[in-house]
Write a structure and sequence with these properties.
This protein is α/β, with parallel strands linked by helices and about 260 residues long. It is about 40% helix and about 20% strand. It has twelve helices and eight strands. The chain has helices at about 10-25, 40-45, 50, 55-60, 70, 90-100, 110-125, 160-170, 190-195, 195-200, 210-220, 240-245, and strands spanning about 80-85, 105-110, 130-135, 145-150, 170-185, 210, 225-230, 250-255. Strands 1, 2, 3, 4, 5, 6, 7 and 8 form an eight-stranded mixed beta sheet that branches. α7 links the parallel β2 and β3 (about 130-135). α8 (about 160-170) runs parallel beside α11 (about 210-220). The chain is globular. About 55% of the residues are buried. The structure holds S-adenosylmethionine (SAM). S-adenosylmethionine (SAM) binds near residues 64, 152 and 153.
């Protein structure tokens, strides 16, 4: 079920992902294979009024691929886990919904992203936000602690997606929900793409074929409630655009429930 081709060097992939997202944290104005920042967030559907209440520097480094917060429908006082929280746009968005009596834990493996989100949480008085260093395949959280697990543009970067969905299911209480946006493909990508660590780091090479992606969510014990395509998302470099057109690489938002 893993999308990792035999030749993908997962150690190299981790280093490339870390160095790319360190740049996204520290130099968000640079050009990447993908869009970043507030114009992207607004185009994907994030309400401007909510973005106004999130630290602007977090949104500068926003590198999500869709809007799923409507599906997540986070309530006041809830506990939320953000897998691959980056500089924190969705973490802070969730914190607006939980209020100070809730809890939002963001987990990320890139130090510069964590440091940025931590500083912004402290400066912004988001006392309900905790940023933890860790991997989305084995997040440092207790079992059954969360009402909702969220993630934006991250699962595609993992060479072991079934482990990520299993970890999300473990973290949720019974009846809890998983709401995410991610990149999937209509057709299985060829090895030339799946073995290219830089295309993985750009959120293309790791795109799992969509039927397999749904099956991986269900195999973790979830029931899929909603699956919708985000037509507003697009890649920006020619190389990325070619791969997306040829193999039907696309962004989706998903809501799934743990029975
Ligand atoms: C495309 S960015 C998205 C960040 C954030 N969700 C957003 O929307 O701006 C991917 C993030 O996932 C993190 N990441 C990728 N793979 C990871 C893994 N296996 N474990 C933990 N974090 C990971 C990267 O460090 C990066 O911050």
């Amino acid at each position: 079920m893993s999308t990792a081709a035999k030749q993908l060097d997962t150690g190299e992939l981790e280093q490339r992902v870390k160095s790319m997202y360190e740049e996204v944290a520290l130099e968000p104005d640079r050009e990447f294979h993908f869009e970043t920042g507030r114009p992207l967030a607004e185009r994907l559907g994030y309400p401007a009024g909510d973005l106004d209440r999130i630290p602007a520097a977090a949104i500068d480094s926003f590198a999500g691929v869709g809007y799923f917060q409507d599906l997540a429908a986070i309530d006041r006082g809830e506990a939320v886990l953000d897998l691959g929280s980056g500089s924190g746009t969705d973490t802070f968005f969730a914190a607006l919904r939980t209020g100070p009596e809730g809890l939002v834990v963001g987990v990320d493996m890139t130090d510069a992203q964590l440091a940025k989100a931590r500083t912004l949480a402290e400066e912004g008085g988001f006392t309900q936000v905790e940023l933890r260093a860790g991997y989305i395949e084995s997040p440092p959280v207790d079992d059954g602690q969360f009402d909702c697990v969220i993630s934006n543009g991250v699962v595609n970067l993992s060479p072991d997606k079934p482990a990520v969905f299993a970890a999300a299911a473990r973290a949720l209480r019974p009846g809890g929900r998983l709401a995410l946006s991610d990149i999937v493909s209509a057709h299985q990508l060829p090895e030339g793409v799946t073995c290219d660590a830089s295309l993985w780091a750009a959120c293309i090479g790791g795109a799992m074929q969509q039927d397999g992606y749904r099956a991986a969510i269900e195999a973790a014990g979830f029931e899929i409630d909603t699956w919708k395509e985000n037509t507003a998302y697009r890649f920006v470099s020619d190389r990325a655009d070619n791969a997306t057109q040829k193999y039907g690489v696309t962004s989706v938002s998903v809501l799934a429930r743990r029975p």
